[in-house]
């Protein structure tokens, strides 16, 4: 895996999205609703729900919002969202993988296509870029919350069943097999670590630098996709500036 800090990029995007907090909560509510609807309202017996709740808490989503989404799933709501993925290329040939939860496939497909075409990208067929990404469990420990050194964290990660540990100045970043994610997360929490982030994500196998003259277009494309109410996650194979 590349040695750059994914956490640094996540933090940067979180800071940039502070003004969009309401939209983020709306998307998280949709994820919580679907997880509770499909697997039950008890997070202790529904790993997917617990993961989404952890994600919501990491985004400072109020407890009332979380509980409201779960209660809605327990009720007689007939809301239903389909999980859809879209694949394509951003300016400069950078692979983009999009995950959406939508109650109107036609609307979402049209909106995503417009976002790509208006910002110098192109929407591809299913499978056109997904093979360029690996599904991974991703866990972050903020270094300021633990006295453990890298050797100790590595030992604990390996004992828990994790695949890889990357260390930066501000964080320990752990990658796992998706099937081992919950086991690793729970083991690290049991060891006393406070997790700053824990989620399933898509990691590019290789990265592509964004040409300087395409960077603004690239950022506009990512922003347009993330601004869409139906889009839950946007993953790109863009190389960091410092790579």
From TrEMBL:
Family in the record: Belongs to the TACO1 family.
Q: What is this protein called?
A: Probable transcriptional regulatory protein HMPREF0493_1079
Gene3D superfamilies named in the record: 1.10.10.200, 3.30.70.980
Highest taxon, organism lineage: Bacteria
Q: What is the phylogenetic placement of the source species in the record?
A: Bacteria, Bacillati, Bacillota, Bacilli, Lactobacillales
User: What broad class describes the main subcellular location of this protein?
Assistant: cytoplasm
Q: Where is the TACO1/YebC-like N-terminal domain?
A: 5-75
Q: Which GO terms describe its cellular component?
A: cytosol
- Pfam families the record matches: TACO1_YebC_N, Transcrip_reg
Q: Does the keyword ATP-binding apply?
A: no
GO terms assigned for molecular function: DNA binding; nucleotidyltransferase activity
Q: Where is this region: Disordered?
A: 1-22
């Amino acid at each position: 895996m590349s040695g750059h800090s994914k956490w640094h990029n996540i933090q940067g995007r979180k800071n940039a999205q502070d003004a969009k907090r309401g939209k983020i909560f709306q998307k998280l509510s949709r994820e919580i609703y679907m997880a509770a609807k499909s697997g039950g309202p008890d997070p202790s017996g529904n790993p997917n729900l617990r993961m989404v709740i952890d994600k919501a808490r990491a985004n400072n989503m109020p407890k009332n919002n979380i509980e409201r989404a779960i209660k809605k799933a327990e009720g007689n709501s007939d809301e239903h969202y389909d999980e859809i993925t879209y694949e394509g290329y951003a300016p400069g040939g950078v692979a983009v993988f999009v995950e959406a939860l939508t109650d109107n496939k036609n609307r979402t497909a049209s909106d995503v296509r417009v976002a790509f075409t208006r910002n110098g990208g192109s929407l591809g067929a299913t499978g056109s870029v997904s093979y360029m990404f690996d599904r991974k469990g991703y866990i972050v420990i903020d270094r300021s919350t633990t006295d453990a050194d890298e050797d100790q964290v590595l030992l604990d990660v390996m004992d828990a069943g994790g695949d890889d540990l990357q260390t930066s100045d501000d964080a320990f970043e752990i990658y796992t097999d998706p099937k081992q994610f919950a086991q690793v997360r729970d083991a690290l929490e049991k060891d006393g670590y406070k997790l700053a982030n824990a989620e399933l994500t898509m990691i590019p196998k290789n990265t592509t630098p964004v040409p300087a003259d395409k960077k603004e277009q690239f950022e506009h494309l990512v922003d347009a996709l993330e601004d869409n109410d139906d889009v839950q996650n946007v993953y790109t194979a863009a190389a960091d500036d410092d790579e």
